[in-house]
Amino acid sequence: MATLIDGKKIAQDVRDNVRRDVADFVDRTGIRPALATVLVGGDPASAVYVASKRKACVVAGMVDRHHHLEAHATQTEVEDLLDALAVDTEVSGILLQLPLPGHLDREPLIDRIPSVKDVDGLGTLSAGLLAQGKHGLRPCTPLGVMELLARLPITLEGASVVVVGRSALVGRPLAQMLVQANATVTVAHSRTRDLGAITRGAQVLVAAAGVPGLIGAEHVSEGTTVVDVGIHRTPDGLVGDVSFDEVEPKASFITPVPGGVGPMTIAMLLRNTLNAAELQWGG
Ligand code: NAD
Hints:
Structural class: alpha/beta
Strand order of the largest sheet: 1-11-8-7-5-6
Strand content: 15-25%
Shape: globular
Bound molecules: nicotinamide-adenine-dinucleotide
Radius of gyration: 19 Å
Helix content: 40-55%
Number of strands: 11
Order of helices and strands: EHEHEHEHHHEHEHEEEEHEH
């Protein structure tokens, strides 16, 4: 029987800490950190995500600045808004909600966000800073995974960690963060041959492939720590990339879905927004 990693509780703890640190920052600087969210179009899932980010921001004591552009907004209109937010001294962090409507070219838009305001950590400069191990803002979901792992009674240093998935959003930045934590990291992906042979060697296994139930009992050795980043809506509710019922009896620690990695993402966004304000303050 594995111990469940309670992402909801840990996320709440991070959020409480951020709220306290925001109050300290305001006392110290007179500046209240502000998150500018940019939503283009009316995708219902994106609208829900943005609404919960905005609410969490207010609860943490930060300013919520929201901008909603119509679905037919042009590349130039989005650029102009991002450029205005980039130079707005009252805005600490800018979050461009993804996915964008298909006619927009997302990479150049993300790269207009200055790295000190890039609270999603997805810009080219932020990715470069991470790759070089330099100070900068990191993508929220992998940060959340690192926070969960940091709270377990396990040692990442020297441990063999397998990350399944190499996306710019999760797998790739996570692998880099793990290397910086001195783990021995293997990245598996859709072209990996014999996934099970690789994952069975893991002491810590992170599944971020976006394939429901990909990781079964045959992929996991006894005593492995299993972190499931996957989220899939099914008629039976939310499921992850890990086949929980099969894997849980073999794991030592495991994240549930929901209630594992999911709640961490917003918590780390709040932390990043405060970090962004600190970076701009230069204190
Ligand atoms: P993605 O589709 O961009 O990348 C998936 C990666 O997995 C790719 O690198 C691909 O090579 C690899 N992959 C695909 N099939 C594979 C297979 N059969 N075997 C091995 N590797 C395989 O997805 P993403 O954006 O990285 O998201 C991954 C999952 O995490 C999704 O389910 C997504 O919904 C979820 N997610 C959750 C959060 C959160 O807050 N918890 C945040 C972001 C993403």
